[in-house]
Here is the input.
Amino acid sequence: MKKQLISLAIAAATAVPAFAQQQSVEVLHWWTSGGEASALNVLKGTLEKQGVKWNDMPVAGGGGEAAMTAVRARVTSGNPPTAVQMLGFDVQDWAKQGVLADLNDLAAKGGWDKIVPPALQKFSKYNGKWIAVPVNLHTTNWIWGNKEVLAKAGVTTEPKDFDEFIAAAEKVQKAGFIGIAHGGQPWQDATIFDNVVLSTGGVDYYRKAFIELDTKALNSPTTLKVFQRMSQIRKLVDKDFSGRDWNVASGMVISGKAGFQIMGDWAKGEFANAKKVPGKDFLCYRFPGTQGAAAFNTDQFAMFKLSDPQKTAAQLKLVADIMEPGFQSSFNVIKGAAPARSDVSDAAFDECGKKSIKDAAEASKNNTLVGSIAHGHAVPASLKNAFYDVITRHFNGQIDDKKAVAEIVSAAKN
Ligand code: GAL
Here is the structure.
């Protein structure tokens, strides 16, 4: 009898308390590159310190198209993840389905209405309620340069406008390097498109044409010039660009095979992950001609309504952790973005990160912060994908500049 009592006591003492086993979060995301994964480890570590287990659900595929397909399958099967990385209009589409949790209590306690820029709130709230939590403020209007390659090509100053950028990339190509490292995937072609639209027509044209879908603005000589300029960039990528992943293209600049990459500031995460130093090994410039403006895409975690109270408790811990200022700094120092909160110090950020934060604050104040077309912050997914299709077919030479304008106009009309 005594023996049984002892073994019972040991079992009870060693049993993990019930709540700890139940406290877990399942997070669906597409952060699978080196830089992205190391940033995500900051969040995993924070939760694990709080006794919350992280069930990882990575869905590879830059820009998140594959991830959004996976979410639809999970939600229609009635088994949503705790949280899903999501962009702009996708958050709004899910909010319309009434399946996202109400985060308003936490938002009120944390004063989120005062610290998150209004342009981001537009996507984090639905019917005045917070239903997603913003992790960062990425911007897409950047070029990344390998300092040594540029010097060897005689490019010693920052290109100030589109033509100077093309001239610089042509010098790099003539010097025997790849002018622009690029991955031929629709979302990456569209990321270049964000930049060429903003550089060619400025913020007013960008907004009128690609956010308000004004036919006159779209069906204009400016849009024709945008596609002519996309063709100029096409001549500066290497012959094997098709299908390449974005972080492999970043690697070509990091290793000195290519002079430039046109990419959002998640690319900075790859340079940082490769222990490269801004100003010494690489240069971060606003895409020439877009200085003073910022095309943003904010990574949010959309929180799905859950039936299990333990899972909901863990979900709220995840939300609180994400909005904590210290996390917003430590995560984004690695990720390459500015924090979503406007009250986070830039002390821990490198010079590119400090520039991200400064530029975002200025753009927010000057109303020159526009939603990225490529990354779901300009139009809903169906139209975004229709734009992808035109941009990619044009970039691959299947339709000419004029046809591309006509197809963009008709896509916007439908
Ligand atoms: C963006 C996302 C970034 C990064 C990038 C490449 O849409 O906001 O965090 O994941 O795609 O996949």
The pocket of beta-D-galactopyranose is lined by residues 30-31, 36, 62-64, 87, 138, 246, 266, 297, 299, 375 (CB under 6 Å).
